[in-house]
Amino acid sequence: MQLQLASVSHYHGRTPILNGLSLQLEEGETGALIGPSGAGKTTVLNCIAGLEEVSGGEIHIGGTLASAQDFHLPAERRGVGMMFQDSALFPHLSVADNVAFGLRGTAAATRGRVEEILASCAMADYAAARPHELSGGQQQRVALARALAPRPRLLLLDEPFAGTDAALKASLLQEVGDIIKREKSTALLVTHDQAEAFALADRCGVIDAGSICQWDTAYNLYHCPNCAFVASFIGDGVLIDGRLAAADEVATELGPVKAAAPLTTPLLAKGSSVKMLLRPDDIVLTEEGQGIAARVLEKSFRGAEILYKLATGAGTHIYAVLPSRHDLAVGAAIAVAPQVDHVVVFPSIG
Fold this sequence. Notes:
By secondary structure, the protein is α+β, with helices and mostly antiparallel strands. It has helices at residues 41-49, 95-100, 107-120, 136-148, 166-182, 194-200, 218-223, 228-233; strands spanning 3-12, 15-25, 30-34, 56-61, 64-68, 71-72, 80-84, 154-158, 187-190, 203-208, 211-216, 238-246, 249-252, 255-258, 273-278, 283-285, 292-301, 305-312, 317-323, 333-338, 345-347. The protein starts with a strand and ends with a strand.
């Protein structure tokens, strides 16, 4: 296990910031933490890096104890590299000297490692350049090269793409992911952007109020959330009212929704009131007179598709994502029906 957090807690004064948080990464895996502002994401990174002490629990890096309630390994002895939103390059140093800054060893060994990592990051031709002569994307690649040059046991990325435009971000995500895999590094990313996390990470953790709600693949977070918070936080979607009509069927105002297998939600008897997760891709257009009537409230053009916010006759708001060739007008009356491949329900509260 390259990274393991076991029941980690952290207090700021008397205020709990992390509350029994646990996660683990195997060697060579990339993980990501996503969650609302103030959930504790950056505090997790700081505790792992050794910039903050834990109040309880343990952190192990590469099998070595790094943090515990009565133990704190200094940051410089943890073998952790960091990459920030601001590339934080030294403006007076060349690219090669920036990358070499944290290396220890003979001049020949340092020069060889700098050449190796710059080639891996496709920056070998810019070794003599200064940071101001580089594009934003090139600066980020140099920052990544500097973080990876000492061959850290763990790479931490603190919202490194937050200041980049959409087109650059897309290319950087691919490049950074490829470099991390090529270097066989273990990495943990903190981000507000779910698309970033899903594109880069093997496993993602949804964090809320200082605890990991679910640590899983992106697919499972989206299609098999383990709680209502994860269901609501990940992607677009709503929780609609329903009733458990059978072990594999939910009755809703949109009609009956049949599951491929018996639902696994515990402690729910037939007839129980439930909340059912409805994603935009669970809704399909139907012919008039079929399905249920709905009205288009809002639309968001996304290129090949459009995300629609709809209101049913009962006033329930749902979302639908449809090919942009449909281009339905706001206010249009349509007919829709549920077509749910992954039926997810939670007990109704209250």
